[in-house]
Design brief:
It is a single chain. With about 650 residues, the protein is α+β, with helices and mostly antiparallel strands. The chain has three domains: about 240 residues, 2-Layer Sandwich (Threonyl-tRNA Synthetase, Chain A, domain 2), CATH 3.30.980.10; about 240 residues, BirA Bifunctional Protein, domain 2, CATH 3.30.930.10; about 90 residues, Rossmann fold, CATH 3.40.50.800. The protein is built from 20 helices and 27 strands. The strands form seven sheets. The chain has an eight-stranded mixed sheet, sandwiched between helices. Strands 24-23-25-26-27 form a five-stranded mixed sheet, sandwiched between helices. The structure holds one RNA strand of 75 nucleotides.
Length: about 650
RNA sequence: GCCGGUAUAGCGUAGUGGUAGCGCAGCGGUUUUGUAAACCGCUGGUCGGGGGUUCGAAUCCCUCUGCCGGCUCCA
């Protein structure tokens, strides 16, 4: 039993001792996770080789990772709940990036009120400092061990089928089938705090029974738990829903409907800045901008296939009476969930020659999708949103260049918003697909070529493409290291066929053009939410809703402030005056809270000297300068 | 859709069966102010909607709606 106590050596190449001693900051979480992942991968390899040896050998020289402590805490949580409640069926309890969870099936409805006593029981079990003992067993032994645990027995059947060794861990009187690895003895787990309880379908399938999932976090001690909770508080301050209210950027109002965003003036200013940049760049890149209707007749959606493939995601039909008297009939309309059919109509406005191609139509097109209950989330998942959508129609000869240009365009656009870490994903032909295999081959190759030539690293998802064509998805990482999928470039072999798209080639015959859908920012609403969190509400100068706030010291300088404001506005800067009856300290505080990049203090001394005292949101007092000097400074900053 | 939680003034919150309170914001006044909060006063709530229990409900029960977390991390 004491074998596990050998586990003190720290000689592994990826030893993490030391690293774990410092509570992480947000910025170093990605690297920690990455390190852990590598280490964990190493462990798995290491363990696989050791598979048929017994416990002391297997875990000797192992270091204690967060992963092991979390996973072990999950076991003790299960044990504690089994000690405290009757008829508990346990399922699984893995470590997660943040902590761990465990899924249970029991009659008692777990609630946060139960947490203190469960935590006390866990703490007791931790303090017992019992060893975690690993043992490979036969299927028969495992069945005996797991008797009465129906989920575990089902999982056991899977393991048996996989041919993998059946590994078990025992701690005190509690045993379960588990791949491990675990800490050597329970005191190494440290402090455990339960965070929340939520429902979770068995095996993640909504057809199965819903289990109760308890989430928890683990710290070396209470201080580490407290530090984690503090970080959670910090993250909450960055939440775009919180900042959206504090900074008066947007509102989602139940009076109107769930998932329908309103851009308040300050949010709208940011959006206008985004859109102006977006339009300028699209014209530069050879796109034409179009505006298309928000609703269309049902036959459009029948032709496009949306009504057969996507009806659940669409708002229900609108029945409209057309015609009069005896000729009256009911026409079905649908609000659009996508822009493509309309862009196709624009393409079909005239007969196309190969000389016209490529045709690139772009639109900030607002679409509505019926997102089911329980999935809406701030601006990230809404029912009405604006796609930065475009469709490219071109000849087979043009396609490679078009894809390259699009990828290049996406990189530049995302870079402008501070996203330089872009990961691409290439999804290839699925088993069931429409379109000529040769076209798939060429299309996929053009996507590959574009990624290679742009020097972008990418992962390939074999068979992961849509039935209508291969695609590239682009994910960025925000300031907290969280990945977000934004851009997408998708071939479509389906719609040109369905809508019978053609162009006349040099041979005088009709041909079917290639069609590519692409979005760079995805949904403008969602993108805005991401930007808010990325910048923690402190937008860079070019995006800030209020770029400059002028702070007159007393109302004697109000006229001076107004002169400054009109000069700034004449230069296109978004400048406001704080005319309130407050002292300078309070005006500065307010401007800081509103995250205004520049404050211009205008007092009697400044007016007399014809200068402004500049204060930067980030760097504080920059001293007095002329308005020309300040304008030159901001112009340089906006030029970057 | 399902599981759990939650809903008190514009915002953040206190209030576990007996007259709904505080802070910020807002409004009025005093002060004319120099780099992150001057002072005094005032307004504002059918306690999310509906139903029930009770002499009496913000509080207990049912129901609807919104919001929050989860239902992807896999023995």
């Amino acid at each position: 039993m004491c074998a596990a106590r050998f586990l003190t050596a720290r000689s592994l190449p990826f030893s993490r001792s030391g690293n774990n001693d410092t509570p992480g900051t947000f910025s170093d979480i990605p690297s920690r996770i990455c390190l852990e992942a590598k280490y964990f991968a190493f462990l798995l390899v290491f363990r696989r080789k050791q598979r048929y040896h017994i416990d002391p050998l297997r875990r000797i020289e192992m270091d204690i990772t967060d992963e092991m402590r979390r996973h072990s805490a999950a076991h003790l949580t299960a044990r504690a709940i089994m000690n405290l409640f009757d008829n508990v069926q346990v399922d699984i309890g893995p470590a997660t990036d943040e902590g761990f969870y465990y899924d249970f099936d029991l009659e008692h409805r777990l609630s946060p009120e139960d947490f203190p006593k469960i935590e006390a029981e866990i703490a007791r079990l931790v303090a017992l400092d019992e060893p975690f003992v690993q043992k490979d067993v036969t299927a028969e032994e495992a069945k005996k061990m797991l008797a009465g645990q129906k989920y575990k027995l089902e999982r056991l059947a899977d393991v048996e089928a996989s041919g993998e060794a059946i590994s078990t861990y025992t701690v005190g009187d509690y045993a379960e089938m588990c791949r491990g690895p675990h800490v050597a003895h329970s005191a190494q787990i440290g402090a455990v705090k339960l965070m929340k309880v939520a429902g979770s379908y068995y095996r993640g399938d909504e057809k199965n029974k819903m289990l109760q999932r308890v989430y928890g976090i683990v710290g070396k001690d209470q201080a580490e738990i407290d530090a984690y909770l503090e970080r959670m508080e910090e993250a909450k301050k960055r939440d775009h829903r919180v900042l959206g209210r504090q900074l008066a950027l947007f509102t989602i109002n139940d009076q109107v409907g769930p998932g329908l965003a309103h851009w308040l003036p300050r949010g709208a200013r940011v959006r206008v800045a985004i859109e102006e940049y977006w339009r300028k760049k699209h014209y530069e890149a050879g796109y034409e901008i179009v505006y298309t209707p928000h609703v269309g007749k049902s036959n459009l959606w029948e032709t496009s296939g949306h009504l057969s493939f996507y009806k659940e995601g669409m708002f229900p039909v609108m029945k409209v009476q057309e015609g009069d008297g005896a000729d009256a009939y009911i026409q079905d309309y649908y609000v659009k969930p996508m822009n493509c059919p309309f862009h196709i109509q624009c393409y079909q406005f005239e007969k196309r020659s190969y000389r016209d191609l490529p045709v690139r139509y772009a639109e900030l097109g607002t679409v509505y999708r019926y997102e089911k209950d329980g999935v809406r989330h701030g601006l990230f998942r809404v029912r009405g949103f604006t796609q930065d959508d475009a469709h490219i129609f071109c000849t087979p000869e043009q396609i490679v260049q078009e894809i390259k240009d699009t990828v290049e365009f996406a990189k530049k656009m995302l870079g402008k918003f501070g996203f330089h870490d872009i990961q691409a994903y290439l999804s290839t032909k699925p088993a069931k697909a429409v379109g000529d295999p040769a076209r798939w081959e060429q299309a996929t190759q053009s996507l590959r070529d574009a990624l290679d030539q742009e020097g972008m690293t990418y992962e390939v998802d074999e068979g992961g493409g849509a039935f209508y064509g291969p695609k590239i998805d682009m994910k960025i990482k925000d300031a907290l290291g969280r990945p977000w999928q934004l851009g997408t470039v998708q071939f479509d072999f389906n719609l040109p066929e369905r809508f019978n798209l053609t162009y006349v080639g040099a041979d005088g015959k009709e041909h079917q053009p290639y069609m590519v859908h692409r979005a760079l920012l995805g949904s403008i609403e969602r993108f805005f939410g991401i930007l808010i969190e990325h910048y923690a509400g402190a937008f860079p100068l070019w995006l800030a809703p209020e770029q400059v706030r002028i702070l007159p010291i007393t109302d004697k300088q109000l006229d001076y402030a107004k002169r400054i404001q009109s000069e700034l506005r004449a230069k296109g800067l978004r400048a406001e005056i704080d005319p309130s009856n407050e002292k300078l300290g309070a005006k500065i505080r307010n401007a800081q809270l509103w995250k205004v990049p520049y404050m211009l203090v205008a007092g009697g001394r400044d007016e007399a000297a014809g200068v402004v005292s500049v204060r930067s949101r980030a760097d504080g007092d920059l001293g007095a300068m002329t308005l020309e000097a300040f304008l030159a400074k901001t112009a340089a900053e906006l030029d970057q």
